[in-house]
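Reopening this ticket.

The earlier resolution said the output was attached, but the attachment link was broken on my side. Pasting everything inline this time so it's all in one place.
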Amino acid sequence: MVTHVQSPIPGDERAELLAFVEAQRGAVRRAVLGLDEDRAGSRPCASELSLAGLVKHLAEVELGWLRLAQQRPNERHRDVAEYRKSFHLEEGETLAGVLDLWSGVARETEDFVHSLPDLNGTFPLPEAPWFPKDGRVSMRWLLVHLVEEVARHAGHADILRESLDGRTALDLTALEGGYAGQN
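Inline output:
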């Protein structure tokens, strides 16, 4: 059960950062492994978070950062009043659907990053009280931030899943790798 992030091309910063982003995405995807819609959408603790809601949120957040970096409009943009909806499945949304959305966003992120001449290019941050006025960040910053964002929510996902059925991240890694029931 290897959980070490492998560098696809040793010394290739872009590939290494993308591998770390993907490793954290995988941790969240494993947290929903084997769950039905009801369990994935349930809230097993005091938090208002559900696993399905976390997947949706992460898909929308990654898409938002991607669109900022591409300097294109975000087709799933939420204003402050709608932000909390990013954490909940709405009518007609399913866990499979938001997983597919996230997979598509992940592919688009990776294609975009591979198309860049380097990671030094910058893009403007949106106006917000938590960003510096006229702030800009690099493509490298974007990838490090995606690692941070997804890892933070992967921790939430671990707690939610363990609260649901006692399965830990290590249990789910073993299950995914075909080692269920082995110690």
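Reporter confirms the inline version is readable. The CA atoms of residues 2 and 118 lie 30 Å apart. The chain has a mean pLDDT of 92.
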